[in-house]
Amino acid sequence: MKEEIERAVEVLRRGGIILYPTDTVWGIGCDATDETAVERVYQLKRSCNKKGMIVLTESIDRVGCYFRNVPAVAWDLLECADKPLTLILPGACGVAKNLVPEEGTLAVRVPDHAFCRNLLHRFGRPLVSTSANISGEATPKGFGDIAEEIRAGVDYTVDIRCEGAPTRKASSIIMLGEDGEVKIIRE
Question: How many domains does the chain have?
């Protein structure tokens, strides 16, 4: 796993995009602070929705680095989550501008996945995470279901298909308002 992490980090630091396993599904990723890399991901996915990607961070402690003010309830939700949880929070900062919609929100998740956590720790920056499919098409259930166009369009594919496989289940998504208002988007 260490060698795969080093290769992925090298590609990410050059502004490249990777195909990698997450705690949920196989994802397309890049440096979440690099606007050019983020744009390449949008182009690869043929995405019309230019703001629908998640940012992964290595720990709960790092979540606050990407928001001006994290609602108090967010910390409780992150601490208590017993399955993958994505929070959409207001006041995004510290990431590429083309990841943040007009309303200033950002989706963030702390993966419970050894490869992802080690990659994030070694890279030292947040990663974009979006499903490895063309926008509007079904999310691949496994690596073999990923379209050739996606596989050919990334700069590096992480090769750990046997260990640390994704759960194949999408995360729960909860949107929090600045006042702590809770809206469940996906259970």
Answer: 1
For the segment 121-169, what is each residue's pLDDT rounded down to a tens digit?
999 999 999 999 999 899 888 899 999 999 999 999 998 754 445 555 7
CATH code, domain carrying 102:
3.90.870.10
Question: What is the DSSP code string of 30-96?
Answer: -BTT-HHHHHHHHHHHT-S-TT--EEE-SSHHHHGGGBS---HHHHHHHHH-SS-EEEEESSB-SS-
pLDDT tens-digit readout, 47-60 = 877 667 999 999 99
Instruction: Give dist(CA 17, CA 96) in Å, integer.
Output: 15
Q: Is 26 helix (H, G, I), strand (E, B) or coil?
A: strand
HEC-encoded secondary structure of 122-145 = HHCCCEEEEECCCCCCCCCCCHHH
Q: What is the pLDDT of residue 187?
A: 81
Range of the domain at 136: 2-186
Q: Residue 14 in contact with residue 8, Cβ under 8 Å?
A: no
Give the H/E segment covering residue 116: helix 114-123
